[in-house]
């Protein structure tokens, strides 16, 4: 079995919280995560955007950077960026091979009792790639939660919690306080944590954890970005930009200079596909893509549509374990038609079920069921020159592959 098949074969083991596996793997690799400085970013929404902005700012300041994010849109190598560019396939496969060798040795020796998960191995691959690339700073996005996420083996210079909202309640808890405590698990003793605009109970929980670890809490504010140009679209990106700026300022105060020009570049030069991402195809048709994979993300997208005064048809798919009602309610107020379809991911909800949920929300928006994604897109474009695609990052990846769009 080749190394890529090996890695994707680990997806069958699903999600498993805990740090024992990743710690054993990293020890077997002689701790690549200790060979670079890191910035650790958690949050319900916005963590990928903040990761991208901070990495852009560090790179503009002259540091050699690594960026680790998840999931990918089209290709696995998107998750691993060196100096802003996705790693090449040969380099990535070589690192996967080294991690695989260590994992198989640990399994034979009984150090690992079970196969590690896809995300655990992918995280180890990221850190091995960063060591091999001799980076100065890695900006690392938490996968899920924080406290028991595989990335939480880092000793960062600074960390951030961008937002707290309901998502993944099965794993993270059913209240905002419980979710916040899980995400606050990334806070390390004495390490500053930058926070975005958070609900009061979530902020209180994070502050409690920070106090026990003597970690300064730095509150980002929209006033931080007054008069500054932000490349990423949407009102929600303004607070993300404020978090990124506060993170860069915090890094600067830790003794790693980030000049003003680099901070401006972090906001003005960042590209982050799939987040209110507007594309024009060669034939003139237009496509607006946004993951909007939970209710808070859907509310942010709905606000953008309202402020932009556009009512496009929506092509929608979502994973079965998501709050589909919470996602559709805000969006159905701002679109003129809904076409439900499915993503190729096996967790994708059945279109008929999506239509049933939508039908209970509205009687004024026409609803079409089109399981074939290409047919769903064509049906939408038959109604308008601009089509919105939302509901899952996996759906966005399928759309980009179908249309031949680049990351």
Number of strands: 14
Query: Nearest-angstrom radius of gyration?
Result: 21 Å
Structural class: alpha/beta
Largest sheet: 8 strands, mixed
Tell me, what is the CATH class of the largest domain? Alpha Beta
> How far apart, in Å, are the first and last alpha carbons?
28 Å
Within CATH, the superfamily of the largest domain carries the name Mur-like, catalytic domain
CATH architecture classification name of the largest domain:
3-Layer(aba) Sandwich
Order of helices and strands: HHEHEEEHHEEHHEHEHHEEHEHEHEHEH
At the third CATH level, what is the topology name of the largest domain?
UDP-N-acetylmuramoyl-L-alanine:D-glutamate ligase
Estimate the strand proportion: 5-15%
Fold topology:
Elements: H1 3-9, H2 20-28, E1 37-42, H3 47-60, E2 65-68, E3 80-82, E4 85-86, H4 89-108, H5 118-132, E5 137-141, E6 158-161, H6 169-172, H7 176-183, E7 193-195, H8 200-212, E8 217-219, H9 236-253, H10 260-268, E9 277-280, E10 286-290, H11 295-308, E11 313-316, H12 324-332, E12 337-340, H13 351-361, E13 367-369, H14 373-381, E14 386-390, H15 393-403
Parallel strand pairs: 1-5, 1-6, 2-5, 6-7, 7-8, 10-14, 11-12, 11-14, 12-13
Antiparallel strand pairs: 2-3, 3-4, 9-10
Helix pairs in contact: 1-4, 2-5, 3-9, 3-10, 4-5, 7-8, 11-12, 12-13
